[in-house]
Amino acid sequence: QLELVESGGGSVQSGGSLRLACESSGTIDKIYSMGWFRQGPGKEREGIAAVDRNGITSYAKSVEGRFTISQDKVKKSLYLQMNTLKPGDTAMYYCAATAWSMNADEALVAMGRDNWNQFGFWGQGTQVTVAP
């Protein structure tokens, strides 16, 4: 099993920045990919950033160039630096991880689907609110 705990959410003005963190713990050693997905009010789930075990990253078009995913393998932590935030970024943000053999692109797509529970884990989420 794997436990993921997110932190770092909050309320910011448009154009502001936030850094999300995800701490992982558990008995699963082979994590192939980790990432972040979000779900905003009235919106579908969206995989926004992923990184695989080779350090390759993948981003959704909606955040590419503004968000940066990084990881600290020693601390088993995952981060999401979010810059130039927009009101459309308002959502609950979830950290996700999978022990299935997925590269970053595959994980990004899979995290955005409702059947992610068949492939991976996710945390309780952290709320990000961006005011105009």
Oligomer: single chain
Into which percent range does the helicity of residues fall? under 10%
| End-to-end CA span | 40 Å
What's the order of the H and E elements?
Answer: EEEEEEEEEHEE
Number of strands: 11
Question: What would you call the structural class?
Answer: mainly beta
Residue windows where pLDDT falls under 50 for at least 5 positions: none
Number of helices: 1
Give the radius of gyration.
Answer: 13 Å
What's the mean pLDDT score?
A: 94
Please state the overall shape, judged from the principal axes of the Cα atoms. globular
What does the largest sheet look like? 7 strands, mixed
SS strand fraction:
over 45%
Describe the structure in your own words:
The chain has one helix spanning 104-111; strands at 2-7, 10-13, 18-26, 33-39, 46-52, 57-59, 67-72, 77-82, 91-98, 120-122, 126-131. The mean pLDDT is 94. Strands 2, 4, 5, 6, 9, 10 and 11 form a seven-stranded mixed β-sheet that branches. A four-stranded antiparallel β-sheet has the order 1-3-8-7, with no helix packed on it. The longest helix is centred in the last third of the chain and has 8 residues, at 104-111. Helices cover 6% and strands 49% of the residues.
Topology of this protein?
Elements: E1 2-7, E2 10-13, E3 18-26, E4 33-39, E5 46-52, E6 57-59, E7 67-72, E8 77-82, E9 91-98, H1 104-111, E10 120-122, E11 126-131
Parallel strand pairs: 2-11
Antiparallel strand pairs: 1-3, 3-8, 4-5, 4-9, 5-6, 7-8, 9-10, 9-11
